[in-house]
Specification:
Length: about 160
């Protein structure tokens, strides 16, 4: 299956092409080295496994970066995810605003890009994007939900138990 990120106008932005379902709805496994295709055709991959967490009805998504040195999180502010008609891809619009969670702190990224693009978004998307970024920062700082130590242990154990 795939994860398909679109721009506000529906143009392709980025596609994760080697994605697997997990035992939790809206959470997906991306093996290390899986190709990610940019809209311009460039291809890249992460040297570590990633678990992508989506939340039905929410304006954010969290990539759990399972690095050997520990976990970090790259969070995208997005429109709520939907399945495509064939149920083989999760599709969402990237709203440019991101949150990065690392051992040394939580940072909101791409605020300038969001400010430059927000005129292209419906007013609801702008309001919800700001709310989503604030909620991600709050949860990350509090170690709640997807950012909890229990969730980190659960997903690392799940990945390590996978057959190679």
């Amino acid at each position: 299956m795939k994860l398909c990120s679109l721009r506000a106008d529906g143009r392709p932005h980025r596609t994760w092409t080697n994605v697997e379902a997990t035992d939790e709805p809206w959470s997906f496994y991306i093996p290390a080295g899986s190709p990610v295709v940019e809209a311009d055709g460039r291809v890249w991959s992460s040297p570590y496994p990633v678990v992508a967490h989506f939340f039905a009805g929410c304006f954010y998504q969290v990539f759990r970066l399972l690095k050997a040195s520990g976990e970090e999180y790259y969070c995208n502010v997005i429109t709520p995810p939907v399945w495509d008609a064939s149920h083989t891809a999760v599709v969402f619009h990237d709203l440019d605003l991101d949150v990065y969670v690392a051992p040394d702190g939580v940072r909101v990224l791409d605020e300038e890009e969001f400010a430059a693009q927000q005129a292209n978004y419906p007013a609801e998307w702008v309001t919800e994007a700001r709310r989503a970024a604030a909620e991600l920062v709050r949860m990350a700082n509090a170690g709640e939900g997807v950012f909890s130590k229990a969730a980190a242990r659960r997903w690392r154990a799940w990945v390590e138990a996978r057959p190679s």
